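Preliminary data (for renewal application), adenosine-5'-diphosphate complex.
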Amino acid sequence: MTQTGSIFRLEGVTRRYDDLTALDAIDFEAEQNEYISLLGPSGSGKTSLLRIIAGFEKPDQGRVWFQGQDITDLPAHERGIGFVFQNFALFPHLTVFENVAFGLRNNVDTVPGVEIEKRTRDAIEMVGLAGLEDRVPDQVSGGQKQRVALARTLVMQPKLVLLDEPLGALDANLRDRMQIELRAIRERLDVTFLHVTGSETEALAMGDTVAVLNAGKVIQSGTPDEIYDTPASPDVALFLNRFNIFDGTLKGGHFAGPFGDAPVATARQNAQDRYAIRYDRTQIFDPGAKLPGPALTARFRASEYLGSSIIFLFETEDHKTVEVDHHLSFGDPRDLTVDNEYVLSWDPAKAIVFGKEGSK
Ligand code: ADP
Ligand code: MG
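Predicted structure:
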């Protein structure tokens, strides 16, 4: 992977719809030739942000830079930025070939016919659709439609490709395969991908960088490992869907929560006192066993196999669901009896603690 500096930069980008601030003074910079995941819940502003980078909408405040140039006032078709829409948006009456060739045939600068042929064939080949050129969109599967949409964007040779929840319409198996292919395609081309998703699994699996968007603000960005190991706020921990998060009181190097009192070495500044422990660092003990730390009494309710691990679901006395993730690489899971009481515990040094007494 070659990195030659920043490809685009957002500077104080704000977008309002009447009273609603969809994007709130966003500062964000992306390196060239990266795969960037933008993770956020529905309504957090993901599509608005992509539309502003693409030039379909203008920010109310702030600037957008692309390849060192301020493009805030540049029309979309002059930006050289590709956009893959969530619903594919293919022309139903045109063949796969003509859907992919469309942008070249209607380019502002005329592209010679032989070049259109070649680039279209190359793009179709690149996404694995060779042989299907003469079909119309109704005659190909959902996954193939997704590839047509991607080829149609790549044929224009953009330096930046924006993908709005590109795998959202695909079933789970296909989604896994397309994740791998999207990364492979990006690596073969000299291009940056900005991939918007509401799925934490997808964001962590695909991104060289993951940016987390909440209520119109980028609340954290970093490598998947950084985000996963050190979420900057309880909101980030919550979106990752891999942490048990408890309310309680942080005071003088201790956190008092539903699990009793736990020592806290470091805490991060936050308006509420919250305690987060990863699902895969939470362990299951029998009542009375020797524990590595806090003791949370909970009833076992159900388990779920997820390929390489098992998730055990527990319910605490105050009816909160707590999850334990057991990786099968650590050996067979223990046998648990549904509705029996167990004690959950963990190494307190592995917890991530937030609170008013935390440091910045
Ligand atoms: P996401 O893609 O993360 O689901 P969006 O960018 O679509 O979020 O929307 C962010 C917020 O802005 C939402 O509250 C949405 O309802 C609002 N919004 C988006 N587009 C418009 C619009 N054209 N008019 C009014 N409100 C809008
Ligand atoms: Mg959206």
